[in-house]
Each structure stands twice: as structure tokens, then as C-alpha cells.
Amino acid sequence: QPQLQESGPGLVKPSETLSLTCTVSSDSVNRGSYYWGWVRQPPGKGLEWIGSVYNGGSTSYNPSLKSRVTISVDTSRNQFSLNLSSVTAADTAVYFCARQGSGNWRYYFDYWGQGILVTVSS
Amino acid sequence: DIQMTQFPSSLSASVGDRVTITCRASQDIREDLGWYQQKPGRAPKRLIHAAYVLQSGVPSRFSGRGSGTEFSLTITSLQPEDFATYYCLQYNTYPPTFGQGTKVEIK
Questions:
Q1: What is the Cα–Cα distance from B18 to B70, expressed in whole angstroms?
Q2: Residue B43 with chain A: CB contacts under 8 Å
Q3: For residue B33, what pLDDT band results from cuts at 50, 70 and 90?
Q4: pLDDT higher than threshold 90 for residue B100
Q5: Please, how many CA atoms are within 13 Å of residue A40, restricted to the half-sphere of its CB?
Q6: pLDDT score at A103
Q7: Residue A31, SS3?
Q8: How many other CB atoms sit within 10 Å of the CB of residue A72?
Q9: Which of A5, A121, B37, B87 is the most exposed, having the fewest neighbouring CB atoms within 10 Å of its CB?
């Protein structure tokens, strides 16, 4: 089964760009038509899908964040990354990377990373 | 976006109790509904997909039902390890959306 691990800075200043990477093992980010995505969870709150990358570089984003989000994939390193620009305190959250299904299952999350807390503060 | 209304937001129960959590979708999502369990500091763990299909390894005291807009997760004979927060997820329509969560606490 795939293993996913998030990495990146735990503290980002307001107005700057949050950058995280998800390293995948025991699977390939370039395999078939699976989607690879990001989900976040503000402290004490619920889950929000941020967006996904699939098919070697195509992307799908949550409309609520679309103007600030970029997700990319590095197949040589078997990683995918999240950039979220112009962050504010409201972007403070645990960020999870996850594998999603394919086809009709493309928005279903089956395997998750452990999550990484990112705090936005000066 | 499809809104997922989940209730109750929290409940207190005792070991051995039967509990039911409900999720209501703002439009028809067929059976494209999953349930997840999350414990503090951990990633969500999948329990059920396709509304009622139990994930391999999940105890049979968990069950799901529903279709269209009304769904439920039932835990029969609550065990100590079941105290957690539960989320529903609709994956029928872009963007995927989660319910607000139900925290199951020890009475």
C-alpha cells in the first residue's frame, strides 16, 4: 500500500507562500489515472479539499482557493507539491496529502499522509 | 458545491451503546458517500465507501446505509477505541466536500 509523507516549513509569514511537498513510496505518482491531492484542517475544525494533480500534471482545484493554489508533480522524485500564495492566519491548518482514486473514484481519499501543521504568523 | 450537513455535531455515549450519525447532502449523490474516523493528531481513516461497503479490516460493528441525499453511519456496541470524530465525504461531484464532523465522546 502507498505511503505518503508531507514535508515543509511549519511556520510561514503572512502574505508569503506556503510550500509543501508530499513524498510517495510504494506507489507511483505517474501510475494510471490516480489523483494525488491535498486536504487541510484548521485547528479544531473540519476537512477541506484543496486540490489535486493527475495524469502527469493536470490539476483540479477547489474553487474557494483556486486563485491562490498551485499543485505540481515531480515524477523523477515521486513527489507532488502544494504552493498556497498570499497566506493569512486563516490558512493555519494541518495539511494532509492523500491519494485519491481514479475515474468515478477520483474524489475519494484512500491513503493519507500523517499531516503537517503549518502556522501562519509573523 | 454540494453541502454535507452532518449531525449531531457531538454526542456522549457509553461503551456498549449503539450510536447513529447522519449526513444529508444538498443534492442527489447516489451512493458516492464515504465515512472516515479521525483520532486526535492522526489522519482520517477510511471506514466505509459507496455508502455501505465496509473497508477491509474495519470491524463489523460499523455499518452504513443510505442513498441519494440521506445517509447514516451506525456503530453497534461502541468500543473504547471508537471514541473519535467521524466525517462523511461526498465524492460524487466536484469539488468533494466533507461533513462538519461528529465527535463521539465517553459519557
A1: 19
A2: 96, 98, 112-115
A3: very high
A4: yes
A5: 21
A6: 83
A7: coil
A8: 13
A9: A121
- Please indicate if any CB of chain B lies within 8 Å of the CB of A36: no
Beta bridge partners of A58: A54
Check A109 against B49: CB less than 8 A apart. no
Is the Cβ of A62 closer than 8 Å to some Cβ of chain B?
Answer: yes
User: Rounded CA gap, B104 and B77, in Å?
Assistant: 13
Closest CA to B105 of B42, B6, B29, B39: B39
Residue of A nearest to B91 (CA): A107
Residue with cell 482520517: B44
- Cell numbers standing for residue A81: 507539491
The C-alpha atoms of residue A51 and residue A54 are separated, in whole angstroms, by 10
Task: Mark yes or no for CB contact B1/A96 under 8 Å.
Answer: no
A81 pLDDT above the threshold of 90? yes
Pull the grid cell for residue B3: 453541502
Question: Using CA atoms, how far apart are residues B45 and A16, in angstroms rounded to an integer?
Answer: 32
Amino acid at B100: Q
Q: Which residues contact B99 (CB under 8 A, 6 or more apart)?
A: A46, B4, B5, B6, B23, B87, B88, B89
Whole-number Cα distances in Å, B97 to A2, A20, A57, A103, B3: 23, 22, 23, 17, 7
A/B interface, count of CB pairs below 8 Å: 54
Q: Can you read off the three cell numbers belonging to residue A100? A: 485519491
